[in-house]
Amino acid sequence: MNAVKGSVEQVIPISDAEIAVARALRAEFARFWSTEQGEPRDVYDRFIAATPAARNVFVQSTDAGIWVRPDTSSDDALLFVHGGGYGLGSPSAYVGLVSHLAAQAGVPAFVLDYPLAPEAQLPAALHVAVDALRGLCRDHRAVVVAGDS
Length: 149
Hints:
By secondary structure, the chain is an alpha/beta fold. It is 38% helix and 17% strand. It is built from four helices and five strands; from the N terminus they run ααβββαβαβ. It has a five-stranded mixed sheet with strand order 1-2-4-3-5. Helix 3 (95-105) links the parallel strand 3 and strand 4. The radius of gyration is 18 Å and the shape is globular. The mean pLDDT is 93.
């Protein structure tokens, strides 16, 4: 292994239990994607929505997206831009995933609802995201942007 001079390198082994969980998860992914049928947006949302919500989070829908707030949070915020290649995905499907980010970080998270293709064309989604970021920056001390793809 390469090490940077002056740095500390630590190897954390993967436990047998973690390996078993990863194998079970891969098997569930394979089962899901080989058996699910329906409109692609619905299938994608069902897959993403399978993540259970973290405990002690509060969810509030708005016209622009969904707030996911842990019971203890700071003046900072997280803007989450969901995946789906600008053509799939919805804020409601991402509540479970984002709830874990919000709970672990101790910050409220906003899951942005942006226009999807082909009904909308780029850069419409980008403009919505930039506007949301500007608004969050006005209302919060610090804002981090996260997402998946």
